[in-house]
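Our example pasted here:


***
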Amino acid sequence: MKQIFLVFIMLLIFCFVANALEPAGTITKIIGEPKLKSTTGDWKTATKGKMVYDGDQLQTGANSKIEIVFVDGTALRLNRNSNFTITQTAKLKAGYATKTRLDNGQLWFNRPKGPGQLNLETPVAVAAVKGTQGDLQVGNNGDTTLIVLDGQVEFSSALVAVLVNELQRAIATQKTPPVVDSIKKENLPTWQKELAIEPASKKVTIDYRDGGQTGQIILNYKKK
């Protein structure tokens, strides 16, 4: 009876460790020498193909940029001088619920349509993203600017929530609620194109080994 109980406990521990090691995504492209810090380690130079996990922090300097693709196909690109954290990636019955935080800097996001949601938190606001492409910028004082390139984003602060549509911009500050206005195509950000990837196949398979665990992540790309 004791042996059966011990085997049961070991199985529970194994399942817990396996789930804890489940990656949130992978680094798919870098420019310069961005930094990566895990929850149990120090800052190290990020490398292409490195898996990222909940709690990981990413930092870019004056000459670096980085791209991450999450397990649900969501792509995020960090511009220069940015500080970013992967807060939580939870698998739902359908899709994923991913929470992240941008403390300062700029990121581009492209989440495929489908179930689930991406939450982009900043010091003053939260952008709830579903099947949307856009740009998020945070100043040193926390002021946040959201630009929607395609789709629609719910943008909220402690004061109010607004819907931001394609070719619209919203700005939120510590003292003022989000204010929405239109933006012309010629004024849209283009920095993210330096990190554009165009795979020959619509499907990319990534093999990984981390902490004794092995597996695959299959990413499906769709051109517009």
Notes: Residues 1-19 have pLDDT under 50 and may be disordered.
